[in-house]
Structure formats: structure tokens, C-alpha cells
Backbone:
């Protein structure tokens, strides 16, 4: 597995060096993988020092939470491995003053033993050192002597204890507020993929497509159950149910702070969706959410998935969570927006132009039949267009075309097909409203240009009027996008179609739309042989040769569907 590292055996020392090099507020202890505040050694006597740490691979934890108002130092073990006693002891000696030191440790055997023994040794040297164990994992514990694991909720404990220490609380007070937070804290995670350790050839486990692991830890291990993937709301509901079953968090009226944590390879989009689903679920359960955080807080290398943490809060804990810190990885807590703030939007589709020329019922029926055929074609051909666009672009054309077609279909009853100018203008507005990317504005411009042209003719149903409208739509695309014939765009299908339709109108050909469709197909086919001058395809140079332009192919397809709907093949 390729990774952006040097020698796998040196990844943690290299990480420590990189962190210190890139932030002047940080320092390291010579000979140990310990990162600390540059102003913390020698220690200040008037503030309790906070030390956390554990195995690396959980970035931004733990070093990302070093700063005023959070941690004083972090001890970094090898990937997913507890740091040594001597490394922890070096950190304690470097930052502990007369006010003492609190160790915040996730409940894993190695961490508990190494941090615990270091604390014992430090006490024999006259230092005042206490330790708290974070055991927020809702999936483990169950009365075992080992207890539940420590997961991402540990970051909330860092914040609460750090704020108390920064405010001048004593060691006993800082420990007490941390323990109060831990007692009302519970976390549960779900993995969509395993992770791969630096230098390893494969992941610790395999996860078949369509399955997820519930109740996993943070060290690349399997969860407590494997289940089928489900929509985000169902997965979130499963996580919340697990948290409530742990008994630490209840629906008894006490408010909570919520945290959605990415495990290392989950897109921000998906984490945001988890956050929205979580708020909806908690609202349905009658649980008040005072604050929420969504992001990457404590990961598991490149694992895809997330964890959810819920923390019962009182005014004191909330005050600590809201307190200022300059720790770089703490992004702060947001106030939930309830059902979401909205402002009224003006109609984007435009109003029907009742002054435009109308057509008779038979022509209107043909127009509607043509539009419906084009829409059905774009919906049906989504996969084909997506596959083409993946070869030469970003793979979104089929999805965008289908989205626009679905939106027009949903509002087709509101379109006045007996007034073509109005109908095209309304369709342009619908596309503009619902389709982004490149294809959305270009198709909207095409429809708007066609609308303006067809509104200037006394006989909008004639082949000549449709040809003029098609040509005007192409001009609108060229003006907006800067494209011209031969640039490998949708114009390479639309312009030949417009020319063929105009020629057919002049000659009185009965199969005008069939001729236009064939011209479009030939134009789209010719794009196989040219490099792109515009759009994302232009970045690929000659690699696009042999593949038709997806936009031109889409135009050829819907024009063929229109011809077929009008009885012309």
C-alpha cells in the first residue's frame, strides 16, 4: 500500500520532527517522541499540566490538542502502540511544576500500564501526578475486568480538563471535572473499510462490499458485529441505540454535547450528513443537544467510517467546552440550528410569458411528446453517460443530466407547451435551479437562447423556427462557455443538427428531425478523433482520443429520442 512516508520504521520520529518544524509553538524532548508546548519547559508553577498520548496513527490526536486551554504535552508511541514508560516519564518531568500534572489516558492495557508506572515513578521523585482513564466505548466493557476502551470522546475530556487547568483549578479540581465528564460520556463507531499500517502489505481484516463493522476500536481492529450497509439515518440510529444501551447517556432530560468524528478516510460531506442525521435522531428521542462538533478529531489512519460521542453536560462542563484554546486541531463547537434556518427564495423558473406566440393543441402535444422523450432518454442513459464522462472528465455528466431531467419531469404539469417560448424559459429556469457543474448552466443557456429565438417567430411549430431556435441555443452556449465547433463539446453534435434541420426546412424534407438526429450522431462520433480544447477533458490531452465527448453523445441521444417520438427514425 503506497503511503506518503519515508522509512516505515521511522514514521513516528519523522512525524514528531514534522510537527515541531511546522509550528513554532511546539517543541520536542530530545531522545523521546514527546511533543510539548514550547513555553511549558521549564514548567510554570501556577497551572496544572495536562499530558495525554498513546499510539500514533490517530492524528490529529494527540499532538493536535497541545495548546493553551488544552494539553501541555503529548507522548507518541509507535503506530497503534503505547509509548514507553520512559517517554511518559520524560514528559512528566519536563512540564510538571508545583501545581502538579494530570495524565489523561485511554483505557487500553498498554497505555494504562505505561502511563501508570510513569506516574508512580514521578511520585517517588516528589511530583504531584494524578491519572484519569477514559473508557467511553459503548460497544465494550460489559462487566469485564478490562473495562471499556477509550475512544474519540477522550478529546472532549482534553478540552474540559484543559479549560479547568487554564482557569487556575487545582489538580484535585481538574481531575474531578474530568472524571465527571467521563461518567457521562459514551462513544460508538462504525467502519466502512479497514485501515493499513505503514509498511504493512494488507489490512488487519477484510470487509466485503456492502458490509460495515459496528463497535470498532481505533486501532484497525474489527468491531463487535458485522452488518449490511444502510442509509446514513439507519446507521446513525444504530450507533445512538448502542450509546443509549451503555447506560452512560440517557433520554432523561439532561442535555448533551454531540461529536461526529471521522476515522481518517471519510469525506467531510459524509460526516456532515451523519451530523444532520444525528441531530434528527436525538430530537426524535427528546434529547436536547447544546453543542455539536463534526470533523476529524481522533482517527485510525486511513479507515473509512465515523464514531459518534455523546456527553451529558451541565453549566460547568459546557463552560469548559466553550472556553478559548489555541490548540490547532480543536475547531470548536457549533450551536445546532434545529430544523435549519431558511430564507425565502425567489422563483428561479420564471413566469409564463403569456404574450408569446402560441401553437395549436396538436402541435403542443407533439412538443410535449418530444420533451418527454428527451427527458426519458437522459434518465435511461445516465449510466452510459457517467461511464463516458469517467473516461475523459469527472464522471458527473450522467448524474447531472438525470437530475435536470427528473426536475423537469416533476414539474411538467406546470409547463405551458402551447406557448413554446414560455415552456423553454421555464425549463431553463428548472435546469438552472437544480443542476450545477458545467452542464447545468450550459444547458440552461441553450434553453434560454432557444426560448428567445422561438419567441421571435410567428410560427413557433415550424421546422424552420425549431432550427433557428436550435442554432440560437448553440450561440448561447458558445457565448457563455467560449466553445466553438471542433472543440470537442456538445456543440459538435448540436451545430450539425441545427444545420441539418435548417436544410431540411428549406427543402421541405418530411424526415427533418431524423436528419438532424443523424447529423448529431455523426458529429458526436467525430469527437473521438480530436483532443479537447475546453473543460476537464482538456487536461488529459491525447488520452481522450478514441472516446466520444460525453456532452456531444448526450445531445445526439436526446435528439434521436425526439426524432423517434415524432415518428422519424
Residues:
Amino acid at each position: 500500500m503506497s503511503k506518503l512516508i519515508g522509512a516505515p520504521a521511522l514514521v513516528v520520529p519523522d512525524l514528531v520532527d514534522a510537527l515541531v518544524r511546522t509550528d513554532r509553538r511546539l517543541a520536542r524532548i530530545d531522545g523521546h517522541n514527546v511533543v510539548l508546548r514550547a513555553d511549558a519547559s521549564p514548567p510554570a508553577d501556577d497551572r496544572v499540566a495536562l499530558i495525554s498520548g498513546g499510539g500514533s496513527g490517530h492524528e490529529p490526536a494527540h499532538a493536535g490538542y497541545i495548546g493553551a486551554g488544552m494539553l501541555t504535552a503529548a507522548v507518541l508511541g509507535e503506530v497503534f502502540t503505547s509509548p514507553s514508560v520512559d517517554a511518559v516519564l520524560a514528559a512528566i518531568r519536563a512540564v510538571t511544576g508545583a501545581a502538579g500534572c494530570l495524565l489523561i489516558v485511554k483505557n487500553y492495557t498498554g497505555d494504562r500500564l505505561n502511563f501508570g508506572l510513569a506516574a508512580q515513578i514521578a511520585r517517588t521523585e516528589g511530583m504531584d501526578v494524578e491519572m484519569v482513564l477514559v473508557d467511553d466505548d459503548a460497544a465494550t466493557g460489559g462487566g469485564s475486568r478490562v473495562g471499556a476502551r477509550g475512544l474519540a470522546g477522550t478529546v472532549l475530556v482534553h478540552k474540559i480538563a484543559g479549560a479547568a487547568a487554564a482557569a487556575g483549578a487545582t489538580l484535585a479540581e481538574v481531575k474531578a471535572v474530568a472524571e465527571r465528564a467521563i461518567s457521562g460520556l459514551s462513544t460508538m463507531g462504525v467502519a466502512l473499510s479497514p485501515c493499513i499500517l505503514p509498511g504493512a502489505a494488507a489490512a488487519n481484516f477484510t470487509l466485503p462490499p456492502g458490509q460495515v463493522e459496528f463497535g470498532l476500536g481505533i486501532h484497525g481492529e474489527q468491531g463487535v458485529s458485522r452488518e449490511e450497509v444502510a442509509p446514513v439515518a439507519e446507521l446513525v440510529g444504530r450507533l445512538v441505540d448502542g450509546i443509549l444501551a451503555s447506560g452512560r447517556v440517557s433520554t432523561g432530560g439532561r442535555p448533551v454535547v454531540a461529536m461526529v468524528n471521522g476515522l481518517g478516510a471519510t469525506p467531510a460531506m459524509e460526516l456532515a450528513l451523519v451530523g444532520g442525521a444525528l441531530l434528527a435522531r436525538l430530537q426524535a428521542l427528546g434529547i436536547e443537544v447544546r453543542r455539536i462538533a463534526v470533523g476529524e478529531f481522533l482517527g485510525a489512519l486511513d479507515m473509512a467510517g465515523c464514531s459518534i460521542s455523546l456527553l451529558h453536560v451541565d453549566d460547568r462542563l459546557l463552560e469548559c467546552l466553550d472556553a478559548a484554546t489555541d490548540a490547532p486541531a480543536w475547531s470548536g463547537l457549533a450551536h445546532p440550528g434545529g430544523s435549519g434556518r431558511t430564507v425565502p427564495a425567489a422563483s428561479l423558473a420564471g413566469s409564463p410569458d403569456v404574450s408569446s406566440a402560441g401553437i395549436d393543441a396538436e402541435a403542443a402535444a407533439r412538443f410535449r411528446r418530444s420533451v418527454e422523450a428527451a427527458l426519458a432518454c437522459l434518465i435511461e442513459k445516465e449510466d452510459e453517460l457517467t461511464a463516458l464522462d469517467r473516461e475523459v472528465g469527472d464522471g458527473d455528466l450522467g448524474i447531472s443530466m438525470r437530475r435536470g431531467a427528473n426536475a423537469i419531469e416533476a414539474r411538467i404539469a406546470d409547463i405551458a407547451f402551447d406557448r413554446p417560448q414560455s415552456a423553454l424559459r421555464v425549463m431553463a429556469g428548472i435546469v438552472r435551479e437544480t443542476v450545477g457543474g458545467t452542464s447545468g448552466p450550459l444547458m440552461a443557456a441553450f434553453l434560454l437562447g432557444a426560448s428567445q429565438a422561438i419567441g421571435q417567430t410567428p410560427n413557433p411549430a415550424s421546422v424552420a423556427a425549431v432550427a433557428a431556435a436550435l442554432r440560437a441555443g448553440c450561440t448561447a452556449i458558445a457565448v457563455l462557455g467560449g466553445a466553438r465547433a471542433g472543440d470537442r463539446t456538445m456543440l459538435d453534435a448540436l451545430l450539425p443538427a441545427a444545420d441539418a434541420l435548417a436544410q431540411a426546412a428549406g427543402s421541405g424534407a418530411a424526415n427533418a428531425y431524423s436528419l438532424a438526429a443523424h447529423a448529431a450522431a455523426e458529429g458526436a462520433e467525430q469527437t473521438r478523433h480530436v483532443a479537447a480544447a475546453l473543460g476537464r477533458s482538456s487536461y488529459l490531452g491525447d488520452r481522450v482520443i478514441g472516446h466520444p465527448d460525453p456532452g456531444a453523445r448526450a445531445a445526439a441521444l436526446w435528439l434521436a429520442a425526439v426524432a423517434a417520438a415524432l415518428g422519424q427514425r
Remarks:
- The chain is about 45% helix and 10% strand.
- The first strand starts at residue 26 and ends at 28.
- The two ends are 52 Å apart (CA to CA).
